[in-house]
Amino acid sequence: MEATVSIENLRVEYSSRDLGESTKVAVNGLTLRVGQGEVFGFLGPNGAGKTSTMNVLLGFVPPTSGTARIFGVDVREPIARQRIGYLPEQTYYYKFLTAEELLRFYAGIFGIPRPETEARIDAVLKLVELDHARKRQIKTYSKGMQQRVGLAQALINNPDLLILDEPTSGLDPIGRMKVREIIQRLKGEGKTVFFSSHELGEVETVCDRVAILHQGELKTEGRVSDLLKEHSANLEQIFLKLIGYPPLP
Amino acid sequence: MNPALPLALALAAALSAGGRLLLWQQSRGQDTSSLFTLVLGESRRAFADQMFLKADAYYHMGNYPSVFDLAQSDGKTHMAKERAGHDPHDHPQPPPPHRDWLEAFGSHFHPTGHRHLEAFRDGREILPWLRLAAELDPHRVDSYTVAAYWLREHLNRVTDAEAFLREGLRANPDSYEILFELGRLYAENNRDVSRARAVLELAINKWIRQEAAKPAPDTYSYRLILGQLATLEEQAGNLDRALAHFTRLKHFSPQPDAVQKRIDEVQEKMSGKK
Amino acid sequence: MNTVWSLAKVVVLEMIRRKDFYVLFILTVLLTLTAASVNLFNDRSIVRYLKEICLLLIWLSALVIAITCTARQIPAEREHRTLFPLLAKPVTRGQFVLGKFLGCWLAVGLALAGFYLFFGLVSATREQHWPMLNYLQAAWLHWLMLGIVIAFTLLGSILFATPSSNGTICFACAAGILLLGRHLNKVALSLAEPLQSLLYTAYFILPHLEIFDVRELIIHDAGLIRWDMFALATLYAAAYTAFFLFAAWLAFRRRPLN
Question: Which of A55, B267, C29, C186 would be A61's cystine partner, CB 3.0–4.6 Å?
Fold first, then answer.
């Protein structure tokens, strides 16, 4: 079976002249596969290369070398993004639009026919519990509501792969719980979810498999249950050990 | 503390400071009556010049040379040619050929060809710019005289012309040009010989006081005033006065023979009377 | 085309819901009506000065709306991070640039329609006639000119860091070309070589925005522009707009988004 996401020997370099360096290697030799219907946690400390990898997957940054494919299509082809939904971290959506208009706009980009668009808008707004505020301009939304409208836009095309960058960042416990519930529901629908997070407890609860990245290199990858068994520790302890942080007494 | 209090205090301070500044400005003899003076200061004169040129551009239906064309080599506008009507010889040069295809293409998008407003009976359209020029610089005499010319010659609005000239005279009490224009108005439109004479004679006195002693006096204006006054006296039957004015005019005229002809005519009339 | 149209619609909605246009429109109306209320020798039939003032305000307002609206598009998408979910969808960078252009151009077109309607009303109340075709020619050429301005502002928003610097540079360039573009050849001819050749080359390269400024023709009722020249002006504007959009796409195409 073909992997939903496949990354082969990926290397990403940035030229950072401002810092006085010639190049900075953000990702080095990363190889990764995410299967269909999996919830995959992509972990690592700040600067580990998570966002760079995601940027390559989404076509924002060209890989320096190596390949990245989504549903078997090179990520540099725009069509590769037809079946994905993406929720970036802390985005301030067009504040002059209502949730309904925002979703109609994104649906238009996917070329979804009008009757189907309205049905999808109803469905996703119900899913993220924003049905009551659908006609209000986004500028009147709380942070949690903005994050949920972001999730709604990521789901408007009924994607087979969801890429979520820190989906619970900045949310209160109730907001986090709601996002977790949505991820679980999507998993139940057979969707593939690829997400990065710093909330290791959350990852442990939600994910089937995880990858831990440090300084651009893959430190480990595997099923959460297998890792816990292998290291006889919780995910947080495993994470700290792998990135070389002194173990807690 | 009530937040209205500091606001009220700030407002009071601003108002009193503003009042003090105004008093100080007035004490220094500055003109604070005009909004333009307050806002633009002395640069209003440059704007007034531009407004005057705008009126001239309107007179030419928008087809007007820019500073880059340098076509106005005499540095004068000739809108209305306020004293003698427009002379077609003011434009002796045919328009230059287009320098390149872009210029030729661009010429379809702005007025070309020499046309004048008067041919379209739209002379009134230059008046706003002249009014604005006068507002911006009340000491710019041309604005009053040109506007008055148009008002009385082309628009038959003698009362408005007189009012505007009087406004100009209040701002420029020593202007012989405005007095001349006012004299013409009394003579040609109102047929009020005594007022016309009084005003034209005053114009001559003003001219003598201001110009006579100059190394290069404005003899053109003087000739116009003398000519107007002489004609007025001739028409009123005061032939000896007319003769005196024509004689003075001959002395300054670039065409003394033509003036001599007029003198001969007056003398003939005088001898016929006797 | 669906994608481009969707992007454009959002830009139009933004302009409708922002206050910029309304403020400038009300200012134009107020200043024009103030000018109309001035008593000029008790003559209410004087109209050309009013047309001139109204058109000047329309030109200034439209230029401000076009440049400010365009200059903030891409930087705002970056700043608010909406660029990321957008380009994570099947949208090419070319479609993105084209959508932004079309949105700004349509938004400015709507604003122009309102402005020219007001202008038509103002002149009709005094002139008692409405030269519809002349106004349509003037509005169309004005809109084309703004298309060029929008395209180069869009390019500027990719090249320059902040919308304010881009806006200022674009405004200065547009105003400079409008005021001096027509005279550059004359200035060039008065210079010595090599400056003469350099300036003459610039004269041919620069987009001559002033060609589209037919206010004088409207003010002085100079008649219709020849239709073949009108069509040529349309082509001229289309060529420059396409050039700037292509350059914007080239600049944006390979630019990393992180």
Answer: A55
Q: Does C227 touch chain B (CB under 8 A)?
A: no
Residue-level length of chain C: 258
CA distance C186 to B103: 10
Q: Which residues of C touch B61 (CB under 8 A)?
A: 220, 222
Q: How far apart, in whole angstroms, are the C-alpha atoms of residue B241 and residue B244? A: 5
Provide the terminal-to-terminal Cα distance of chain A, rounded to the nearest Å: 44
C10: chain A residues, CB-CB within 8 Å:
94, 97, 105
To the nearest whole Å, the CA of C104 is away from the closest chain A CA by 16
Check CB contact under 8 Å for B106 and C42.
Answer: no
Domain locations along chain C: 2-254
Of C89, C92, C258, the CB nearest to A106: C89
The letter for the amino acid at B125 is: E
pLDDT confidence of residue B118: 66
| Max CA pair span of chain A | 60
Residue B112 to residues B94, B98, C5, C204, C216, Cα–Cα distance (Å): 12, 12, 41, 22, 10
Q: Per-residue pLDDT tens for B52-110?
A: 888 888 888 777 777 777 544 455 555 545 444 444 445 555 666 778 888 888 888 88
Q: Which residues of C touch B103 (CB under 8 A)?
A: 182, 185
Q: Give C23-37 pLDDT, tens digit per residue.
A: 999 999 999 999 888
User: What's the gap in Å between the CA of B3 and the closest CA on chain C?
Assistant: 29
Closest C-alpha to A139, from A102, A180, A110, A167:
A102
* Structure-derived torsion over alpha carbons of residues A123, A126, A131, A135, reported in degrees to the nearest 10: -30
Contact yes or no for A38/A32 (Cβ under 8 A): no
Sequence-ordered strand ranges (E) for C36-184: none
What are the backbone dihedrals phi and psi of residue A82, each rounded to the nearest 5 degrees, phi first? -65, -35
Determine the 3-state secondary structure of B188 from DSSP: helix
In this complex, do C6 and A109 lie within 8 Å of one another by their Cβ atoms?
Answer: yes
**What's the pLDDT tens digit per position in C114-159?**
999 999 998 888 887 788 899 999 999 999 999 999 999 999 999 8
**Binding-face residues of C in 186-205 toward B, CB within 8 A:** 186-187, 189, 203-204
Please state, in angstroms and rounded to a whole number, the distance separating the CA atoms of residues C139 and C145.
10
A94, C82: Cβ pair inside 8 Å?
yes
Query: Cβ A110–C9 below 8 Å, yes or no?
Result: no
* d(C-alpha A144, C-alpha C132), whole Å: 53
- Give me the percent of chain C exceeding a pLDDT of 90: 60
Q: How many CB atoms lie within 10 A of CB B258?
A: 11
Residue for token pair 């971290």:
A89
* C38 contact partners, CB below 8 Å, separation of at least 6: B128
The vertex-B217 CA angle with B212 and B220, nearest 5°, equals: 115
**Residues A229, A234, A239: CA angle, nearest 5 degrees:** 105
Q: Is the pLDDT of residue C223 over 60?
A: yes
| B218 token code pair | 């404005």
Query: How large is the ipTM?
Result: 0.84
Count of other CB atoms within 10 angstroms of residue B153: 20
Are B204 and B223 a contacting pair, CB within 8 Å? no
Tokens representing residue B129 in the block: 């710019």
